[in-house]
Batch of 2 targets.
Target 1
Amino acid sequence: MIYFDNSATTVPYPEALRTYQEVATKIFGNPSSLHQLGTSATRILEASRKQVADLIGKSADEIFFTSGGTEGDNWVIKGVAFEKEPYGKHIIVSDIEHPAVKESAKWLSEHGFEVSYAPVNEQGFVDVEALAGLLRPDTILVSVMAVNNEIGSIQPIQAISDILADEPTISFHVDAVQAIGKIPVSAYLTDRVDFATFSGHKFHAVRGVGFVYKKAGKKITPLLTGGGQEKDFRSTTENVAGIASMAKALRLVTDKEAFSLPKIAKMKKIIFDELAKYEDITIFSGEGEDFAPNILTFGIKGVRGEVIVHAFEEHQIYISTTSACSSKAGKPAGTLISMGVPTKLAQTAVRISLDDDNDMGQVEQFLTIFKQVYAKTQKVR
């Protein structure tokens, strides 16, 4: 079995699973309880918070645990809008954001807010000048992802930060779900970023846990009210075992970056160079430092992406049709449409997303099977 769908989810590290099991079975108390089991759970919770903060270069009081990227995006987009509503009702998101951001923005537009969408160029990068032109006196929030989940384009967060440097009243949110463990933290957590969202299962933690970075002093309205956990910002009993597992996974993936990322980039290049030899294959992801090292999206002319996915599945090779959160809807990749790719061509797109768990032998096997799959498509087109 070859798993090339790591942008959809990753296999939990064995160490992270062991941490989860140990905490879940031995330190199962509610952190809000006053007895020893509760205080032990609190110690694990806060130690995990500090570890996560240290690994991304922030303070522990700036880290808030969630159930994952979708909750985090919803909280920041809606929470900032609600908090700043007295000062303005205009927000800006890029046209290639994950549905968790775009649907949150759409919801706000149905509840009295105005949303502007910053366009991207033909390579899938936000047009910084166009975004700057959208800024208004009543703009309260800008949200741009760090790494695009469909083609891997690394967005110009520093350039946007520079534009917003003179706009202190505008909150800046970065969806960093696809970035952590794939590009340097400094590339997306600039000093100007006020909020960032992360999801544990994208970096080998268990599902159902994530975190939000909230810069100290920045205000946001909570979405969940109740018992006052997470400093009154997210009321619900904390998933201590999941949080501890996530902290462990983040430490492991961070420790491996120095040697894992060059390895992943090399595997991508080998596949890229082979696919580039075919005239009727369109490669939507680029090479080099402007693209994440793990994501490669391509299409075979005249063949829908789901056909290719299932053809590889017959050989126990697992890839996807771009975003896992949208693929079952049968829609073409929204990022490609925003880039100006014709709908019919966008419908051919499939995504390979690599990880340190993969190796060169798997790459060679993938390319061998690819030749067989490609040959079959020639017969039916």
Note: The radius of gyration is 21 Å.
Target 2
Amino acid sequence: MIELAFVVCLSAAPTSCEDKALQFSDITLMACNFGAQPQLAKWVDEHPGWQIRRWTCHPIEPGQDI
């Protein structure tokens, strides 16, 4: 399982940030790295007022927390 972990911050309060993650069971680590930007753009479109500060892809065990 691959996790796309990212930090989002409020546009109006850039120091107010949260950790978020999307998990995928059907892609490789390389596919996550290449496909992360469209996934993150979709997340931002669905969550106006937030900005992506940084992101990373990494493997996780099923059921593992962020």
Note: The mean pLDDT is 94.
